[in-house]
Each structure stands twice: as C-alpha cells, then as structure tokens.
Design brief:
heterodimer, A: alpha/beta, Dimethylsulfoxide Reductase, domain 2, Barwin-like endoglucanases, 6-stranded mixed sheet, 5-stranded parallel sheet, 22% helix, 14% strand, B: alpha+beta, N-terminal domain of TfIIb, 2 domains, 3-stranded mixed sheet, 6 helices, 31% helix, elongated
Chain lengths: 844, 185
C-alpha cells in the first residue's frame, strides 16, 4: 500500500515475523492474526513470553484478543479516529522520540503558504468540487517547483504502491534543502501542522467515534509510549482489516506516522508488519501481474504521460536523487530480458510497439467491461473471483458475457461454472469454457514471496496427475504456439510477439520450462557472458545487462539460487539471513540505518542492530544503506542518485532521505489521514462536515447500488473476515473434507442484543440483505461481537466469514454478493470491512 | 542440532504457558509414520495458503506424495502448521482434483473432455482471433496504443513468481493490458 510506500519509500512490510520477538509491545489492529495467520502468531506469543505487552484493537473479540494483554473494541471503519487519537496523545504529551523525529523525518520542513488543513469541512486546500478531486499543488514543500521531473508510478510503486504519475518528489534533493525550522516551532513546519491537524482527535472524541472506552484508549496510548524510545520498541501488525476500506491507504499512513513519531521504524522490535493474505501476494506485485506496473514497479507506458518514445519514457521516469535515479538501467535491462537482441537501448525503437494504458484498467473496471461486452476473452490463474471478490454477482454476470474463459485450477471452482449458477439456463449462456487442470505447489519448482518480502523456493516432489500442468507450462507453451502462429507475419502490430525472447530450456516428458532459468532472468545477468549479476547496482543502461525484475536482482548472485537457501534457524541468528532471500539485497529490516543515531551509534545497547564501525556499516542485518557512506556525509547540490542521500538519511528511496510525516505529493486523498466514515455507514461523521472520503471511487450503475449513510433500511454494520480452516473464496479449502468438516457452514456472528431484538436464536437461519443482494446464513449468537453506543444509539455489527460458494464439498451462500464496489482512491481496494445491511430471522 | 522429542514437548509446554497433559498416549508415541519406510524421499516446499510462508516437508515414494508436514528448520514456522497447512496433503490427493481438460461448448449443459494439446491449440487460435479483431493502434487523438483491451488476465497471488513473470512478459508482448490479480497497490 502507498500508506507505507509514500511514508517510508517502499510499500513492503518494514520488518519480519521473527523480529516481532524483539518487540517490547506489539499492537495488532486490523488483523485477527491468531486465526488468519496462526503460525505467524507464534512470534508475538514468544515476545509475550519474553515480557512484551500485546494489544489487540478490533471490531470483534477473537482468539487474537483472547491471547493479548489488552483488547480494545472499536467500531468497524473507525481506525483512523483511534490512530489519530494516539498521534494526538504522543504529540500533546511530548512523548515523541525527538532526536529521531528531528533527524529522520520531515517534521522540520516548511510547507507551502497555500496549504490549508482539512478542518472543519474535512477538505484540504486544492479541492476541485467540479472534478471531485484534489489539485495537490498547495501541499508541497515551500520552494518546491510546481512542475518537476517526475518519478511517477515507478516511485510511487517501489513503494510497492502506485502513486500518481507526475506527482512524486523528483526534485526533492537532500543536497538542496528546503526551508525548515529545527526548533519545530514554525507554524508552517510539518510538526506544527501535524499537531494542529490531530488536536481534535481527543480521547473523548476517540470514545465517541470508535466506541472504545476512553480509559482503555488511554491505557493503550500510555503503553505504546512507555514501550518506545531509545531502549524499547513497539511494533504494529495489520492486515486487510486496515486495507479494505475506502480510506485504507490513510489508515496505514496513520500508523506509519505514529511509528515515525515514536522512533520505531528501522529498528529491531519495531516497524510496521503487513500480513498479506496469499502465498505470494507480495510477489505478484513485485513481479507484477497488474495493469499499471511492470516487474520491479516499473510504470506501465501511459498515453497520459510523456511516454511517446523510449527517450521520453526514460526521461520522464528518472528521478534526480535516490535509487530511482537509475531508472534507465532498470528499464533497459527489463527490455533486454524480454526482447534480447531486438531491443537496442540506443534507439529504443522497439518500445514504440509496447502497449500503453489510458486510464484505469484494474480489476473492477475490467469486471464491468466484461459485463458490458468489451472484454471477450479471459485467463484465470488461481483466482476464484466468481466468489472471492466484492459484488461477486457482478463478476459472475461478467463471466457469462465473455466469448471464452480459460480457468487454470485444481478443482471445479465457481469461476469455471458461472454458466450453470444463479439459476441461469445454460442454453442461454454462450461462454466457451476451458477448465485446465493445474499442478499444485509440491508438483512444481518455483518461488513464492511471502509477507515479509522473503523469497522461498519450493521443490517439485512429484509429477502432477494426468494432464495437470503448472501455470508456467501453460503460459510457456501458449506463448510458443502464438510465436509460431505469428512467425510469418509482417504486420507491425506483431513486432513484439515476434521479438519476444522465449527460449527457456525445457525438461522431462512434458517439456516443462526450466523454472530456475526464469528466476535467473528475473534476477539479471550479463548479456555477453550470461553470468548472473550480484545486484541492481551492477545493472547498465547500454544493453550489456538483462534483468526481468530489478528489485529481485541478486537473487541468483554467484550463480546460486539464493531463494533456495535453507540453513536451519537453530544454526543462525534470529535474523536468519541464510534462510531464503529477501528483496532488496537480502535486507530483513528496511531502513535499518535508523537503528543507529545520526552519528551511526546504536540508540541503545539493548536495541543494537546496524551501526557504523568507523569504516563501514555493519551489524546483524544487511545494511539498508550504502555500505561505506559515513554518517557525516553531506551531498552537494549537484550530486545525483544515491550520492544525493546524506549519511543520516535512512529512508533512501525518498529524495530527501527522510520519513514523511506529511506527504507533499503522491496521494489522491490528502497529505494527512482524516477520519471519514465508510461509504456506507449508519452514523454521521462527528469530526468533519465531509461524511466519506471525498475521493473514494464510486460506480453509479444500476447493478451497483449503494446504501446511503444513515439509511434506516440498513442499520447494521457488516464486517467480513477469514476463518482458520478456510482460505479466501474456498477454492483451496472447500474441496478438502478435513477442512469442510471443521467449518462446514456459513454463519453470521451477531451480538445477543440484536438476536433478542430480531427473535433469533443461536443456529437459526437469518437473511442478510444489502441493496446489492441477500444471503442466508446460520446465526452464531455471541458476546464476541461488541455492541457500540453512538451518541445514545445502539450500533450492531454482523461478522461474516466469506469462504463459501455453490461448489465444493461444503457449500454456502456467497457473502461477497453483499459487498459494494466502492474503492479507495489510490489503489482501488474495495470496502469489505465496513458496509451496511439489515438482518431478519428466517430464509426470506 | 536436532531437537529431541522430549525437549520439543517441554518447549511446546513452555510456549503454551500451561501444564497440559501430553496429547499422545505413551503407546502412541512409539508409533512411527510411514515416512521412515525405505524408499521414501523428502522434498522441501512452501505452504500454498496464506502469506506467512511456512516451510513444508513433502514425503513421497514412487511418484506419489504420502505425507506433508511442517519443516522444523524454518525460522518462520519451526515445524508447525495450522489446520489449513496441515490439510495440504488432503488437497494434493483429493479425489475432486482435475486431471483432464474440461471443455464446455457455448450454450451446452455439459462438460466434455478434451485432449490437452487440442485445448492448447484451440486457446491459441482464440487469442489470435480476438487480438486481431480488437486491436487498437492509436486513440482518437493519434496517440499510439498498440494494444487489445478485449483480453483480460486475472490472478497471480497464488502462483509462482516465475509464472507471474511469464504472464506479464507474454501478455504485454501480445498487447494485452487488462492484467490484474488479488493485490491492490
């Protein structure tokens, strides 16, 4: 998420599971770690054994809550109010880590005179009522030019999260410091803006909005302050309970800001750990199968940007300072990996044939384009979106309007059977379906990138059954066939497919492509000798290197598959540098230069991690810093690239080397987090006149109606969640009798007071309805669902696990049929963690 | 440095912070799984479910998987697996698994079986046809597009990095830009 990317420079989790053992306090919010990531939860439990305090903040009381020292209930969708309250507490009580904040964040930087904060209307300066979007010009650092060489999507993304095109800090340059106030007193310095912005998030207001008792809130605030500073660190853990909101990015921003204020980033036992939901969801953005980025967060060529020619593209995307200054090296090496001798970086002519994007072609617009007949064919690689995504009925309608769909899966998932679901007469549905049997993980070689950016290789144990094949086999042989079909074409539109370098060695009776050769290409090699490069610093823009994904460069250093290293943990330090390989360059805690003070000495003996030994950076981890750049180094105004980052700038992906409390560019919904209610909410926004995130992306179509705020027909808040025994849409769990037996049936978790009002007893059928659809479920009447009092009214929440569908050995209604397509403005994530519905007894 | 079962149990007890009874009877503890049988091989894998990335040991003999367990060497899971991870074996050997291509003709009520190579040829032909019918060389303002918007690719978070790489490499080279997966960035 750009929440982390904009604040720190990269979108990946800053820390790792093992490092949670070093924490003095762990706050888990927006995650039910004990049930959704059960084995990961062993690390907080070990921390607790060692004396750490564990805190859980969540709309539901879960097994995570049960294992924590403190549980705070909050109404679903009110996280920013809670985190804003913590930020306010830290600032008002002067509990921030002053040396860290002053040196490693942009707290002292002055912001433009034109900037106006969001209160009381809830809109920042730059709001364009007609366009319903912000012009972010007034959010900039004082003295920053209005138009600068941009780093765009790429920078947004290394971030791991696409920012906005021309809106990144190309001209930020530590060698040319902006006006600032080291006393942090100037009314326009970031620190004072932050202080004023969050002043209204008082403990009383936190209680009113979130429903969390003030005493509980204050106990948590005091606990995290006590457990932060030179000697102690607090870690934050989150998951989709934070991201799946119409303001999800700003929720994470709020936590990221708080961690900077407390001085917890880049240090052992600190940081922000994002718990991702799929085996390689991190990998699928790193080596992206996304419309707007190429592998390594290289931005997709875009007609809206100056990407006309190769030269335009490279000039537009190259930053002046930091690691994005080497964009020409990364992009040329990618083109060499894909097109070999057909791509010459001197003229870059082949780039003319590369496809361009022209707007939002992401998942939801694509679904709607399917339904509207604009998409004819679809490939599906291990995603059961007929069940697993929001407004799943829209997805099934979309599938039924395709000419053909190719589904690669191990089971007969719903996505392959839309033609016989929803009571549709198959004879009315013209979609041609190819359901290709696929290999499972233990039947193929390959690597996953898990939640902490760690690549782990899995070995093929046996052949898959019958005609089942790996997805690599499918794509490789499809590509081989298409290259043959186009071999004789002289049409310019076929130039790229003809130029495509597609010569992987194959092996075995089924001609499986050699997977290690693909990883080697991703990691990069010299085009003359074929020898793997040691890392991205070796990449060149003259065609002498090829590299399919520069951030993974080094994964094949020395000709060794680094992702396949498996030195037992008992025989190495807890950091476990020899288990798998983490990007970038096997660094396990990002920004770890911040674990030392500005002079390079550990902040404390207890929190020693990476330090300057007089000649180089050293310590327990690979330094996330140039190894021999001394702490005293200061760039000159003409320095470029990493030379423009000072010796005390731990956030090396940011042009100024600093963590961003205030985001002068890069976000569509404001430079600071603001509490807005969810798009669908039963209550008004108590803090601002603006009810919801003004930039949330809504789709006003007859097939995607919304429940209006405070609509009495939909009085309850729904929050969806995962169970331990099933996985997302159930494609990999509803077919397994063991798991089906453990969790056989869909249920709706509701509080006893709501059950009493509706005359519902435990295990009764209930009907839950939104304006999109309705589902039937068994009631699970449980005290675990807190009831909130909101200005005298009772607010009930309904918890719904979303794993069921009509196929499989255990079946149930599709919870996602209830969820609206209402999207976060920066990343287009949907709002499944807080929307409204009604509930009635019986199967209506 | 192998952990002896006795020590392991002591460790588990200390982690739980309780004094529960050993869940397996003394007689049961003497049983040995088939993984010790002659001819059984062991491969290292990764759990296919969530993103924690638990390491798994896959035991197999004569080309068949006979057991999947947690890998004690992993710093992440140290030999443990959750209920889903523990059920990986059940997924691999499930009788519901597909081993043949299923093909559904337009307007048909039934699945048919297709030979794999036939299906691959048919898919390649369809890709070529829709690509040619929907090609956009430039937009209304004369800006180069070089693409087709009529083919979508969905999925990626449950397949390998190398597989995602082949998808983005091939599909972009065909001019397809509607590429998306479970992640939002």
């Amino acid at each position: 998420m750009p929440g982390l990317g904009i604040t720190y420079g990269r979108g990946g989790a800053t820390t790792n599971l093992m490092d949670l053992q070093n924490a003095d306090c762990i706050i888990i919010q927006g995650s039910n770690m004990a049930e959704a990531h059960p084995v990961g939860f062993r690390h907080p439990m070990i921390a607790r054994e060692k004396g750490a305090t564990l805190i859980h903040v969540d709309p539901r009381y879960t097994r995570t809550s049960a294992m924590c020292d403190i549980y705070a209930p909050i109404r679903a969708g009110s996280d920013i109010a809670f985190l804003g309250g913590l930020i306010n507490y830290v600032i008002e009580n002067e509990r921030y880590f002053r040396d860290y904040v002053l040196n490693y964040t942009n707290a002292a930087t002055l912001i433009s005179e034109d900037f106006r904060d969001a209160d009381p209307a809830g809109l920042f300066s730059g709001w364009d009522e007609e366009k319903q979007e912000y012009d972010p010009t007034s959010w900039r650092y004082e003295g920053m030019p209005l138009r600068y060489a941009a780093v765009g999507g790429s920078q947004g993304a290394i971030f791991g999260e696409a920012g906005e095109g021309e809106d990144h800090a190309g001209e930020l340059h530590a060698g040319r410091p902006r006006p600032n106030d080291q006393t942090l007193q100037h009314p326009r310095c970031v620190f004072q803006i932050l202080k004023r912005h969050f002043a209204r998030y008082t403990p009383e207001m936190v209680e009113r909005i979130t429903g969390c008792p003030k005493e509980k809130f204050l106990q948590i605030a005091e606990t995290i302050c006590e457990n932060s500073g030179r000697d102690k660190t607090t870690a934050f853990v989150y998951s989709v309970g934070w991201t799946q909101h119409s303001k999800g990015v700003q929720v994470i921003r709020a936590a990221a800001i708080l961690q900077l204020l407390l001085g917890n980033v880049g240090r052992p036992g600190g940081g922000v750990l994002a718990l991702r939901g799929h085996a390689t969801i991190q990998g699928s953005t790193d080596i992206a199968t996304l419309y707007d980025v190429l592998p390594g967060y290289i931005p997709m060529p875009d007609v809206a940007k100056n990407h006309n020619t190769w030269r335009d593209y490279v000039e537009t995307e190259t930053a002046e300072a930091g690691w994005w200054s080497y964009f020409p090296q990364y992009a040329a090496s990618l083109m060499k990996a894909w097109y070999g001798e057909h791509f010459d970086p001197k003229d870059g002519k082949l780039f003319d044939h590369f496809p361009r994007i022209s707007g939002d072609h992401s998942y939801y617009p694509t679904l709607m384009a399917m339904k509207d007949g604009e998409v004819k064919g679809c490939f599906v690689f291990g995603q059961n979106f007929a069940v697993g995504g929001p407004h799943a009925k829209l997805a099934r309608d979309g599938i039924r309007n395709l000419d053909w769909i190719v589904v690669l899966d191990a089971f007969e998932i719903e996505t392959a059977t839309a033609w016989k679901l929803d009571g549709v007469d198959p004879e009315e549905c013209g979609t041609e379906v190819f359901l290709m049997p696929s290999a499972l993980v233990s039947e193929k070689d390959g690597s996953f990138t898990q939640t902490q950016r760690l690549l782990q290789w899995h070995d093929k144990a046996v052949d898959p059954p019958g005609d089942a094949r790996s997805d690599a086999w499918f794509v490789f042989h499809l590509g081989r066939r298409l290259k043959e079909l186009y071999a004789d074409s002289d049409d310019p539109r076929d130039t790229l497919i003809k130029a495509l370098k597609w010569d992987y060695p194959t092996q075995g009776p089924h001609d499986e492509p050699d997977i290690e050769s693909i990883l080697k290409e991703i990691g990069g090699y010299r085009t003359d000798t074929g020898k793997p490069v040691g890392g991205f610093a070796e990449l060149k823009d003259d065609g002498s290197t090829a590299c399919g994904g520069w951030i993974y460069s080094g994964v094949f250093a020395g000709g060794v598959n680094q992702a396949r290293r498996r030195k037992p943990w008992q025989r190495q330090d807890l950091v476990a540098l020899e288990w798998g390989w983490a990007w970038p360059m096997n660094r396990r805690i990002l920004y770890n230069r911040a674990s030392a003070d500005p002079e390079g000495k550990p902040w404390s003996e207890r929190k020693r991690y990476v330090w300057w030994d007089g000649e180089r950076w050293t310590g327990r981890d690979v330094p996330d810093f140039e190894a021999t750049k001394p702490p005293s180094y200061r760039p000159g105004p003409e320095d470029r690239g990493v030379d423009a980052i000072p010796g005390d700038g731990p956030f090396i992906m940011q042009g100024d080397g600093k963590g961003w409390l205030f985001a002068p560019v890069g976000l569509k919904d404001g430079p600071l987090p603001v509490h807005y209610e969810p798009v669908e909410s039963p209550v008004p926004n108590l803090l601002y006149a603006q009810q919801r995130d003004p930039t949330a992306r809504l789709f006003f179509r007859p097939d995607n109606p919304y429940n209006l705020p405070e609509d009495p027909r939909f009085p309850h808040v729904v929050t969806t969640y995962r169970l331990t025994e099933h996985h997302t849409s159930g494609a990999m769990s509803r077919w397994i009798p063991w798991l089906g037996e453990l969790q056989p049936e869909l249920f709706a978790e509701i509080p006893p007071e709501l059950a009493a009002e509706e005359g519902v007893r435990n295990a009764d059928w209930v009907t839950i309805e939104t304006s999109r659809g309705k589902i039937h479920a068994r009631a699970l009447v449980s005290d675990r669902m807190p009831v909130f009092r909101f200005d005298g009214r009772k607010i009930y929440q309904i918890g719904l696990p979303y794993h069921w569908g009509p196929n499989g050995v255990v079946k149930g209604d599709v919870v996602n049929d209830l969820v609206p397509v209402s999207l976060e403005p920066n990343v287009a994530i949907h709002e499944a963690k807080a929307f409204t519905a009604n509930l009635k007894r019986g199967r209506l | 440095m192998a952990v002896r079962p006795k020590d392991l149990w002591r460790k588990i007890r200390s982690h739980l912070g309780t004094t529960v009874e050993h869940p397996v009877s003394p007689a049961g503890r003497e049983l040995r799984a088939r993984i010790k049988d002659p001819g059984v091989k062991k491969s290292v894998s990764v759990c296919p479910y969530c993103a924690v990335g638990c390491s798994q040991l896959v035991y197999h003999r004569d080309g068949r998987i006979i057991d999947i367990e947690g890998n004690p060497d992993s710093p992440i899971n140290a030999g443990t697996l959750c209920p889903k991870g523990s059920a990986t074996y059940g997924m691999v050997v499930s009788p519901h698994r597909l081993a043949k291509v299923r093909y559904r003709r337009p307007y048909s009520r039934e699945w048919e079986e297709l030979p794999l190579e036939t299906a691959m040829d048919m898919i390649a032909e369809r890709v070529k046809k829709v690509r040619e019918e929907s090609w956009e060389e430039e937009d209304g303002r004369g800006r180069r597009l070089s693409r087709s918007m009529a083919v979508a690719s969905i999925g990626g978070a449950a397949i390998d990095n190398e597989e995602n790489y082949l998808i983005t490499k091939l599909f972009h080279s065909l001019g397809f830009v509607r590429i998306t997966n479970q992640a939002r960035i």
